[in-house]
Amino acid sequence: MLSRTANGLYWMSRYVERAENIARLIDAGRRMDALPDAGVNGNSEWASIVIASGCSTTFPHELEEATRENVVHHLIFDHENPSSVYSSFAAARENARAMRIAVTTEVWDAINETWATMRSLTPSAADRGQLSGLLDWIKQRGFLIRGAAGASMLRGPGYSFVEIGKYVERADATARLVDVKYNVLLPEDQSVGGGLDYMQWQQILRAANSLRAFRWVYREAVTARTLVDFLILNKVSPRSVAHCYCEIVEGLEDLDPRTTDQLRVLNRARRMRDDILETSVDDVLGQGLHEWLTATIVDTNMFAGELAAAFGFLGPLESQSQSQSAS
Amino acid sequence: MFNEMYDGDSVRPEYKLIQDWIDENGVEALTEKRAEAEALFRRVGITFAVYGEGGDPERLIPFDMVPRVFGASEWDKIERGSIQRANALNAFLTDIYGDREIIKAGILPESMVTGNEAYEAVMEGYTPPGGVFSHIIGVDLVRVDAETSYVLEDNCRTPSGVSYVLQNREVMERMFPDLFRGGIVRPVDHYGDMLAEAMQSVAPPMCDREPTLAILTPGQYNSAYYEHSFLADLMGVELVEGQDLFVEDNRVYMRTTRGPERVDVLYRRIDDAFLDPLTFNPDSMLGVPGIIGAMKAGGVTVVNAPGAGVADDKAIYIHVPEMIKFYLGEDAILPNVPTWQCGKPDECKYVMEHLAELVVKEVHGSGGYGMLIGPASTKAEIEAYAERIKADPAGFIAQPTLALSTSPVLTDAGLAPRHVDLRPYVISGKETKLIPGGLTRVALREGSLVVNSSQGGGVKDTWVLSQ
Question: Which of chain B's termini has less CB crowding within 10 Å, N or C?
Answer without folding.
Answer: C
